[in-house]
């Protein structure tokens, strides 16, 4: 469990582009095949974590845009 906590804290420091690029690499490796079941599962799990990081970044960006648009609308 400590390994998962370590990975999660490390993922929090990833920027959107870093997480996206690593996720693209994970997907390419999975699509290429030739990996063991164990390695494929590990790659899939990593991909899920990276997708969560990307989703958090995008949701945060959406919230900031919504707030900026709301502020702009109140200023009119």
Walk me through what this model shows.
- By secondary structure, the protein is mainly alpha-helical.
- It is 88% helix and 0% strand.
- The protein is built from three helices and no strands.
- Helix 2 runs antiparallel to helix 3 (37-75).
- The protein is elongated, with a radius of gyration of 17 Å.
Put the structure in a nutshell:
The chain is mostly helical and 76 residues long.
List keywords for this structure.
76 residues, mainly alpha, 3 helices, elongated
Q: How does the SSE layout of this entry go?
A:
Blueprint: H1 2-12, H2 16-32, H3 37-75
Strand fraction band? under 5%
Compute the separation of the termini in Å.
52 Å
| Total E-strand runs | 0
- List segments where confidence is low: pLDDT < 50 over at least 5 consecutive residues: none
Overall pLDDT confidence: 89
């Amino acid at each position: 469990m400590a390994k998962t906590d370590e990975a999660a804290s490390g993922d929090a420091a990833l920027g959107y582009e870093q997480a996206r690029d690593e996720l693209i690499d994970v997907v390419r490796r999975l699509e290429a095949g030739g990996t063991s079941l164990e390695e494929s599962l590990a790659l899939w799990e990593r991909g899920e974590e990276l997708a969560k990081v990307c989703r958090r970044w995008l949701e945060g960006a959406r919230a900031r845009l919504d707030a900026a648009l709301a502020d702009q609308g109140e200023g009119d």
